[in-house]
Amino acid sequence: MQQVLQRIKGDKVIWSIVLILSLLSLLAVYSATGSLAWRMDKSSGFYLVKQLGVLAAGLGIIFVVHRINYTKFARFSVVLFLICIPLLVYTLFFGTKLNEGSRWIRLPLINLTFQTSDLARLAIFMFLARQLSVKQKVIKEFKNGFLPLAAPVAIICALIAPANLSTALTLGFTCCVLFFIGRVSIKHIMVFAGVAILAGGIFFSVCLAFNIGRAGTWKKRIENFAGKETTVAGQESADHNYQRDQADIAIANGGFLGRGPGKSWARDFLPHPYSDFIFAIIIEEYGTIGASVLIFIYLLFLWRSIMIFRRCPYAFGAFLSIGLSFTLVFQALMNMAVNVGLMPVTGLTLPLVSMGGSSIWFNSIAIGIILSVSRYVDEMEGKQQMIN
C-alpha cells in the first residue's frame, strides 16, 4: 500500500475530490436503490456492492491512466476519433434500444453494454486538443484553421443527436467553449453555432413531421418544461411530467438541512432516482446545504483543472485538461439544472455520483488524463526548481 501511495502523483485536490464524490455516490446509490432492489428481487445491499466494484475499478483506471505520459494521447487521438465514427453509425442503426433511442453497444462474450457517445466525447476532446495545439499559427483562418476543427465536431454531434440529443447539444456547446479558449475567431464560432442551430431545427421539424426517431419525446419534454399540459376528457394526460413533479416534492421535503441519510420518501416514486434524478434525492436527504457543497466540489474540480491549464507549458496538455474537465463539470451542472426544474428533462447523469458502469469508467479515463497532465507539470516545475 505504501508503494502504491508513493506512486500516486498529480493534483492531490483532484484526487481528494474523486474520493469524496465516490463516497457520496455510495451513500446516495444505496439510499436510492431500495425500491429497485425490491422490484428486482435483490438484497438491499446488492446495488451498493455493485457500485462499490464499479467505483473501485474507476479508481484503478485513474491510477493506471495518470501514470501514462499524456503526450502519448496525441498520437492515439486520431485513431480513436476514426474508430468512433463507425461505432456511432453502428449504434444508431443496430445498437441496444431503450426508450426508442439506440445509445448502447453490447459487447459479445462479456455481455457488457456501453454508450458510444461517452467514448466519442472522450475522443473528440483529445482530437481537438491535438488540432488546436498544432494549428495555433493558422487558427484565425477559416479554411486552414477552423474547418479542420469544426468538421469533426459536426460529424460526431450529428451521429449522436438522433438517439441522444442532450449529449449532442452538450458536446457541441463545450466544444465551442474549447474553440474560444483555443483562440478561434469569435466570428467563426458564431457561424458554427448558427449553422448548428439551423440544422438542428430542420432536423427536429423533419423528424416531428414524419414521426421519426425520438422527436415526439423531445416535443413532450419541451412542452412539459414550458408548463403546457395536454388533457383528455377533462383528465390530465399521461404525458404530464410525472418526473418533474416527484423531483419537486423531493426538493421541497429536503428543505435547508435535509431529512437525513437514507430517509428519502421520493425514492419510492421518482423514476430513476439512482441515475438521472439522483441530485433530487441528495437534496431531499442532505438539504440545500448538501447540494451547495456538491456544487462547490464540482466547481473546485474545474478550478484546479484551470490551474493545470495555466501552468502547463505545452498547448496540447493545456487544452486537454481544460476541455475534459469543463465537459465533465458542465454535464454535472446540466443534470442539477434538470433536477431543480431549470431545464427540460434529459438523460444526462451526475458524473461519478449516479449509478453506472461504463459512464463512470470513461469519466475515470478523462480524470486520469487530467492528472497525467498535472503530474507532468509538477515534475517539470520540480526539475526547474532543482536547476535554479
UniProtKB/TrEMBL annotation:
Protein name (Swiss-Prot/TrEMBL): Probable peptidoglycan glycosyltransferase FtsW
Family (UniProt): Belongs to the SEDS family. FtsW subfamily.
PANTHER family in the cross-refs: CELL CYCLE PROTEIN (PTHR30474), PEPTIDOGLYCAN GLYCOSYLTRANSFERASE FTSW-RELATED (PTHR30474:SF2)
GO annotation terms (biological process): cell division; peptidoglycan biosynthetic process; regulation of cell shape
Membrane-related topology note: Multi-pass membrane protein
Organism taxonomic ancestry: Bacteria, Pseudomonadati, Bacteroidota, Chitinophagia, Chitinophagales
Catalytic reactions of this protein: [GlcNAc-(1->4)-Mur2Ac(oyl-L-Ala-gamma-D-Glu-L-Lys-D-Ala-D-Ala)](n)-di-trans,octa-cis-undecaprenyl diphosphate + beta-D-GlcNAc-(1->4)-Mur2Ac(oyl-L-Ala-gamma-D-Glu-L-Lys-D-Ala-D-Ala)-di-trans,octa-cis-undecaprenyl diphosphate = [GlcNAc-(1->4)-Mur2Ac(oyl-L-Ala-gamma-D-Glu-L-Lys-D-Ala-D-Ala)](n+1)-di-trans,octa-cis-undecaprenyl diphosphate + di-trans,octa-cis-undecaprenyl diphosphate + H(+)
EC number: 2.4.99.28
Entry annotated with the keyword Transmembrane: yes
Keyword set, alphabetical order: Cell cycle, Cell division, Cell shape, Glycosyltransferase, Membrane, Peptidoglycan synthesis, Transferase, Transmembrane, Transmembrane helix
Domain of life of the native organism: Bacteria
Organism (species): Taibaiella lutea
